[in-house]
Design goal:
Keywords: Signal, Transport. It comes from Streptomyces longisporus. This is ABC transporter substrate-binding protein. The protein folds into 2 domains: about 200 residues, Periplasmic binding protein-like II (D-Maltodextrin-Binding Protein, domain 2, 3-Layer(aba) Sandwich); about 190 residues, Periplasmic binding protein-like II (D-Maltodextrin-Binding Protein, domain 2, 3-Layer(aba) Sandwich), CATH 3.40.190. It is about 45% helix and about 10% strand. The chain has 21 helices and 12 strands. Strands 1, 2, 3, 6, 11 and 12 form a 6-stranded mixed sheet that branches. Strands 8-9-7-10 form a 4-stranded mixed sheet. It is globular, with a radius of gyration of 21 Å. The relative contact order is 0.19. The N terminus is likely disordered.
């Protein structure tokens, strides 16, 4: 339906993995991996946005499911426009059985159109016992659980070059003001503080969301995400002003505002971890590690590390997340077997397959941190899971696409305009409210 972001380019070196894992808890022999091949001769089709290494690693999970149940699987890559592709397949009588949905708004759209089957009691029990309640909330519509969050992103991580910070004599900051102060020290040492990917409007929404969640608190965050609070609220204007302190400071942004607006996400990572560094830090999700490792050969934990997005104005440090939820379509030719796949995906055993392969975080607290292949990923996963119900899903992913997920329009475009000229937070808030009101009404 819209852009990829929560899992963009998140890949690390795959590790060898045996599929002969022991059974994990309850739900009958199929979901628990009893190995009785109860689904032999059946095929489950799965649609999702993943390509490249992400698709290959998810295929390992599907292969493990096949080894246990006898079912064959077929993965269909939808590209960014999930809802359009899935809608067309439903209309054409060729609906997939399972869809990996990357936005809360799309999951809600599918449910309200009557496309989804409620998840089984086995899956719901696994969610109740293995996930923080917030994940069930984001997977439910009108109190019915339709989506299982299998893969998550931690979007409150600031990645940095340890060499750059050491040379500047600064340590990872604990507050937003300390971060800007540390940024000036880094800049004085010869590098810009931050590389900002302003060409991709979604990165700017993530900046705003982290500041807003910490500064305004979770209740207002939830209200703004549901458009029960207007974007003209004083809390929004204040958060924009806080973000504007960074945007207008040419000493802090590599190349200044103009260059930031011409820098995409991979380019922003390159400015910190590429062969010719221009900045010491880049803010984005845990998937920065995949780009730093795969494209620039950085050893995570040594050449690249992160600190949590710092607390703003005395608030709590934010934990903003995104994720891919598995749903079962009513019109799939093998929805029953698709439901069994979700029962398997709800187990820590299934999550461990991708965790060992790399480029993956699970919100399932029953997954052992030892399943992850490096200390930095373990630390990121621990931060995400230990945040419990204080986790908040990416706000723009909860909004209608016209406002929160369309290139050159809505929140993306207006925050790009704000990056270009952050002098009028109140005016930007009014523009955001006008765009939001139109999109939510539609």
């Amino acid at each position: 339906m819209m852009r990829r972001r929560t899992t963009l380019l998140a890949s690390c070196t795959a590790l060898a993995l045996s599929l002969g894992a022991t059974a994990c808890g309850g739900g009958g022999p199929v979901s628990a991996g009893g190995g009785d091949k109860a689904l032999g001769g059946q095929t489950v089709t799965v649609a999702g946005v993943w390509t490249g290494s992400e698709q290959k690693n998810f295929q390992k999970v599907l292969d493990a499911f096949s080894a246990k149940t006898g079912a064959k699987t077929q993965f269909i890559s939808t590209g960014d426009n999930v809802s359009t592709v899935v809608g067309s397949k439903i209309e054409g009588g060729n609906a997939p059985d399972v869809v990996m949905v990357p936005q809360v708004g799309v999951l809600q759209q599918f449910a309200k159109k009557g496309w989804l089957k409620p998840l089984s009691a086995t899956t719901e029990k696994a969610v109740d016992t293995g996930y923080a309640p917030v994940w069930k909330k984001y997977g439910s519509v009108d109190g019915t659980l339709y989506g299982l969050y299998f893969k998550a992103a931690h979007k409150s991580t600031v990645w940095y070059s340890p060499t750059a910070l050491t040379q500047a004599g600064v340590k990872p900051p604990k507050t937003y003001d300390e971060m800007l102060k540390a940024g000036h020290t880094v800049s004085d040492s010869g590098l810009a503080a931050f590389s900002v990917a302003g060409q991709d409007g979604w990165t700017l929404t993530d900046w705003f969301e982290n500041i807003y969640l910490s500064q305004a608190g979770p209740e207002k965050y939830d209200a703004l995400a549901a458009h029960k609070l207007k974007w003209t609220d004083a809390s929004v204007v204040k958060a924009l002003g806080t973000l504007g302190k960074l945007f207008k400071d040419k000493q802090l942004i590599a190349g200044g505002q103009k260059e930031a607006l011409n820098t995409d996400f991979p380019g922003s990572v390159e400015k910190v971890f590429g062969p010719k560094p221009e900045a010491g830090m880049v803010y984005e999700g845990d998937f920065v590690a995949g780009v730093a490792h795969d494209q620039f050969g950085k050893t995570i934990g040594t050449d690249a590390n992160f600190f949590p997005f710092p607390a703003v104005d005395g608030g709590k440090a934010p934990v903003v997340s995104g994720g891919d939820a598995a749903v079962v379509l009513k019109d799939g030719k093998n929805a029953t077997a698709g439901m069994k796949l979700l029962e398997y995906l709800a187990t820590p055993e299934a999550a461990a397959v991708w965790a060992k392969a790399g480029g993956f975080l699970s919100p399932n607290k029953k997954l052992s941190l030892d399943s992850y292949g490096d200390d930095v990923t373990r630390a990121t996963a621990k931060s995400l899971v230990s945040a419990g119900d204080s986790v908040r899903f990416d706000m723009s992913d909860q909004a209608p696409a016209a406002f929160g997920g369309t290139k050159g329009a809505g929140e993306w475009k207006l925050l790009q305009d704000f990056l270009s000229d952050p002098s009028n937070p109140k005016g930007t808030a009014a523009q955001l409210e006008a765009a939001a009101a139109k999109a939510y009404k539609g």
